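Working notes for the structural subgroup meeting. M.R. asked for a predicted model of this chain before we commit to crystallization trials. I am recording the input and output together here so anyone reviewing the notebook later can reproduce the run.

Input as submitted:
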Amino acid sequence: MEANRPPQTSVTTDGDATGPGEEARKTVAAAKAANHLSEVRLVVLGWRWPGKSLTGNTIIGREEFHLERAAEFCVKRQTEVQGRQVIVVDTPGWFSAQDTPPSYKKELMRGAILSPPGPHAFLLVIPVGMFTEVDRSRVEEHVSLFGERVWKHTIVVFTWAEVLRNISIERYICREGKELKWVLEKCKRRYFVINNCIFGEHPQVNRLMERVEKMVAEEGGYYKPEEVEKEKKPMDENQNPAREVRELGARPKQNSGLDLSKAK
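Returned structure, recorded in token form:
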């Protein structure tokens, strides 16, 4: 009888049966396709720890960035990830316990113009460990070289997170307190955890690219260096809050003395 017939599924023009779940999946897929970039341009920022250059190597999928080469000069490499051309610029790492030389800062700023017309994202690499007021000041000092708008295009990338074991990255962030939270709030809490022990093709790199594409869609495009030149002001070295501090910052977890195993 007509009333006892089972509910019908809709049929698309290509012959695939679809239900509500399938429609939702296709909607998500369509959104991803709309955000897909044929080219992704990245600039990697951070301390003079190997985690910064290792992150660049993880994205590229091979060892292209070496700590000794990236110490003073920008290095640009590219690869392909899931059909995207990915350009990665590794920049000079800044110092933890002493002032970064002006020549390093100048070279650091050059990283933004090595992937014209401008980078889609700045990856601010932060190793898991004790994050102090000095570290926050160092981040502010160096990221501000690119102007205030840079935060709209910044993603924090946590490295060495494997030392957390069973502690989630969210709990780690809560444990670290206001200094790390300040950084995350500046970039709208955009962060990503990367495992630099995994080389070659791996889903984590594609997930990072999708995160970058989502940010680009939300912020309406890429970082434009020429616009920042208008808002930048020369840095007064006397305004550097970390100038007289002689404290080692951004230490690896195993040297930080931070006991995350007792986190509640």
